Amino acid sequence: MGICEGRVAIITGAGRGLGRAHAIEFARQGAKVVVNDIGVALDGSNVGEQPADEVVAEIEALGGEAITNGADVTSWDQTKALVEETVERFGRLDIVVNNAGFVRDRMFVSCSEEEWDAVTQVHLKGHFCLSRHAAEYWRNQSKAGETVDARIINTSSGAGLRGSIGQSAYSAAKAGIATLTLIQAAEMGRYGVTANAISPSARTRMTEEFFAETMAKPEDGGFDVMDPANVSPLVVWLASPEAREVTGQCFELSGGEICVNDGWRMGPKVDKGARWEADEVGAAVQDLLQKAVPNEKVHGT
To answer: Which of 131, 170, 171, 232 is catalytic?
Structure first.
């Protein structure tokens, strides 16, 4: 019996990469899975592929139960229908894994409005739309006196936590997702819902094109550090009843490594007890910076 036996999960962007690995592991652990994917190319353009069907076939071959869904995660109406379809088909919804995304990398000074909007739409708004409808479903259950033990698992990135050269839109969206997770955890706990985020390092279409050497499979057949399946066990555990007390966290993952991210927190401070004069501020700030923990390097620097 798996640790998510009988639970129902929606996983976005589940046709390939991390989403596919999550879907398979959820099925292995007893969950019923809604495989959401619209089959777009790396840049988000529609190429008419149907990878979700292949994932469902894999799950059914394992003896699991899954359905495909082609909702656009940036659509308020389509994600509402996705939640409704899931509940109608499986009788419940317990887990939302927000994974869908794409990249249109560009140096900030060259980034167009269209590129900025496209990337932030699918990542940040995509996390909002589905989670918002699921949250309303769970709140209504709780207010009706039902016991809720639900999960939101978001996908941030090292680019969002520390920044990444040439990825201003992607990094800003992923940073927003990390903060959104904190707010979801704080607001939804009263209804029996936890919210956590992951920041994975793994081989996907987004990473293998730009970090080919780092993402390459080992030639000697040893441990494949960048296999996306390495990330999925933590995601599934966070979705299980065992993790009901874990919320508001962001976990960085790479290979066999699990790290709890420390996040933004207050550092050194000074209080004059009165308004500062402009010519006094410089010395005070320089003293604070000497005491502060240095920022981690931006990716690509």
So the answer is: 170
| Residues contacting 264, CB < 8 A, separation 6+ | none
Catalytic residue among 131, 156, 157, 171: 157
Give me the residue spans of the domains in the chain: 8-260
What is the pLDDT confidence band of residue 98, given thresholds at 50, 70 and 90?
A: very high
Interatomic CA distance for residues 174 and 31, integer angstroms: 27
Q: Read off the pTM.
A: 0.90
**Active-site annotation holder among 174, 199, 201, 240:** 174
In this predicted structure, the answer to whether residue 271 has a pLDDT above a threshold of 60 is: yes
| Catalytic residue check, 174 | yes
Neighbouring-strand partners of residue 150 = 193
Which of the following CATH numbers is that of domain 8-260: 3.40.50.720, 3.40.50.11740, 1.10.260.40, 3.40.50.300?
Answer: 3.40.50.720
Q: What pLDDT does residue 44 have?
A: 47
Residue range 195-217, pLDDT digits in tens: 999 999 877 655 545 555 555 56
Annotated catalytic residue 137: no
Phi-psi domain of 245 (left: phi exceeds 0; alpha: psi -120 through 50; beta: other): alpha
The residue type found at 20 is R
> Catalytic: 157?
yes
